[in-house]
Amino acid sequence: GAVVSQHPSWVICKSGTSVKIECRSLDFQATTMFWYRQFPKQSLMLMATSNEGSKATYEQGVEKDKFLINHASLTLSTLTVTSAHPEDSSFYICSARDRRLAGYNEQFFGPGTRLTVL
Amino acid sequence: AQTVTQSQPEMSVQEAETVTLSCTYDTSESDYYLFWYKQPPSRQMILVIRQEAYKQQNATENRFSVNFQKAAKSFSLKISDSQLGDAAMYFCASQVWAGSYQLTFGKGTKLSVIP
């Protein structure tokens, strides 16, 4: 149980294009999903918190118009990198909290998406 | 604001030996949680062990145990009988209620296991 998938696992795109990354909770409903960014040999940096049916909350310094997050259902959140540039190349990871496990605070992580912008 | 500090960028251990990874944290909250996550080369984040701050007893999970010193805000991870599969990045993380239980990660420690 508690499996989170991400699609695609890797993507290469041209500068100026937009890329959508999907995060799905496969066997549970996620009250909240989180999006992280990880540069090589660095830690995870929280980009935004996504709650189903409401607007995402972005961390300071993260451009909300560039990184669009949509949490349309309890099992799906999407991150769209708009007008991607080479500096957006990174490893993007999502995680999710199981709504049934109130008070149990584990986040379940997806396998990540490697984005390369040429 | 929460901060998590891992002062050991890299560590190594002989197979079958014991190694301790250090972590200190800072929080003004009284209710919080602490975690150790493992990130192998596949980059999939794996929960190793979890500690609730209100529990005095140190958490253990098979070969993994923690030394939780609340007053010192220290949360070290001990890996016993190290195995080759333990080689990975290890991240210490804290979690408080901030509307959504966000995780704050340390910079990580790269653990190598020497056969």
Task: Put the structure in a nutshell.
The complex is a heterodimer of chains A (118) and B (115). By secondary structure, chain A is an all-beta fold. Helices cover 0% and strands 53% of the residues of chain A.
How much helix, percentage-wise, in residues of chain A?
Answer: under 10%
Structural class of chain B: mainly beta
Mean pLDDT of chain B: 94
Strand content of chain B: over 45%
Q: How much is the radius of gyration of chain B in Å?
A: 14 Å
Instruction: Note the run of SSEs of chain B as H and E.
Output: EEEEEEEEEEEE
Q: Output the number of helix runs of chain B.
A: 0
Based on CA atoms alone, the radius of gyration of chain A comes out at 14 Å
Strand content bin of chain A: over 45%
Query: Unreliable segments of chain A (pLDDT under 50, ≥5 consecutive)?
Result: none
Name the chain pair with the biggest interface and residue counts per chain: A-B, 20 and 21 residues
Low-confidence stretches of chain B: none
Number of strands of chain A: 11
| Terminal Cα span of chain B | 41 Å
Q: What's the N-to-C terminus distance of chain A?
A: 37 Å
Order of helices and strands of chain A: EEEEEEEEEEE
Question: What form of chain B results from the Cα inertia axes?
Answer: globular
Classification by helices and strands of chain A: mainly beta
The main pleated sheet of chain A reads as: 7 strands, mixed
For the secondary structure, the number of strands of chain B is: 12
Please describe what this structure looks like.
The complex is a heterodimer of chains A (118) and B (115). Chain A has 118 residues and is mainly beta. Chain A has no helices and 11 strands. Chain A has strands at 4-7, 10-13, 19-25, 30-38, 44-51, 57-58, 67-73, 76-81, 90-98, 108-109, 113-117. Chain B has no helices and 12 strands. The N and C termini of chain B lie far apart (41 Å). At the A-B interface, β4, β5 and β9 of A face β6 and β11 of B.
